[in-house]
């Protein structure tokens, strides 16, 4: 890859880090204003990929995660924080021509690049969506599974984000989170913290499965309660000493 392309990509990522950093005191988006801020650090976006696709395929990461998530042909799946599309393209193969995949990201440059990849690889069952840090902007009652892989710790407005995401799941749908078991400022989300934040939004933790080949664990959630009134949400306290 030419050096100028690498440098340009680094500048885009640095700009995104500044835009999404919890230390950036810019005004909150109107859609986030009614919700509490996270009572924990929010990791900045530092890359559009967690690891190389070749390395991930060598340990069968995507196939294993899709198996554990119960993703089958004909399903409709959202890939949130799709980045360069590692899961998007593999989900497209798994759900087949009768299924659908929606790839969402909050960076226009990423969405444009992913759109080109989807066109190049002729993935007719995939569409892309530009979301926002506080709202993934997903269609209501549409998805059998929603995947968030190595990105939950980067959500700048988790309570607003989850509140807006919740209606997109079908009645029997599941939210699947893959992340590392380490503090959020170290680009992970401890499972107990994750379960607490999701519980506050009406989700029940069904299972946590250690997944070292995917860099941490897989957590499955189901929506069991209506969305809370934003003013009633109490942020989960962050205690780094017992977040395992």
Automatic annotation (TrEMBL):
CDD domains: AdoMet_MTases (cd02440). Keywords: Methyltransferase, Transferase. The keyword Cytoplasm does not apply. InterPro entries: Methyltranfer_dom, SAM-dependent_MTases_sf. It comes from the Bacteria. GO terms for molecular function: methyltransferase activity. Residues 72-181 form the Methyltransferase domain. This is Methyltransferase domain-containing protein.
């Amino acid at each position: 890859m030419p050096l100028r392309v690498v440098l340009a990509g680094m500048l885009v990522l640095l700009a995104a880090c500044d835009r999404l950093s919890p230390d950036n005191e810019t005004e909150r988006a109107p859609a986030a204003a009614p919700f509490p801020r996270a009572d924990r650090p929010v990791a900045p976006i530092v890359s559009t990929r967690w690891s190389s696709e070749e390395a991930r395929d060598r340990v069968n990461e995507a196939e294993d995660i899709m198996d554990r998530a119960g993703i089958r042909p004909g399903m409709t799946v959202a890939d949130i924080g799709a980045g360069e599309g590692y899961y998007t393209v593999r989900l497209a193969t798994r759900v087949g021509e009768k299924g659908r995949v929606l790839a969402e990201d909050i960076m226009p440059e990423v969405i444009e690049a992913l759109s080109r990849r989807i066109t190049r690889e002729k993935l007719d069952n995939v569409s892309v969506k530009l979301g926002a840090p506080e709202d993934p902007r997903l269609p209501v009652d549409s998805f059998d599974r929603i995947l968030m892989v190595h990105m939950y710790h980067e959500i700048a407005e988790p309570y607003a984000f989850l509140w807006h995401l919740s209606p997109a799941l079908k009645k029997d749908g599941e939210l699947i989170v893959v992340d590392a078991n380490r503090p959020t400022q170290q680009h992970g989300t401890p499972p107990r913290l994750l379960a607490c934040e999701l519980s506050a939004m009406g989700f029940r933790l069904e299972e946590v499965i250690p997944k070292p080949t995917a860099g941490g664990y897989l957590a499955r959630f189901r929506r069991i309660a209506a969305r809370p009134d934003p003013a009633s949400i109490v942020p989960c306290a962050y205690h780094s000493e017992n977040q395992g």
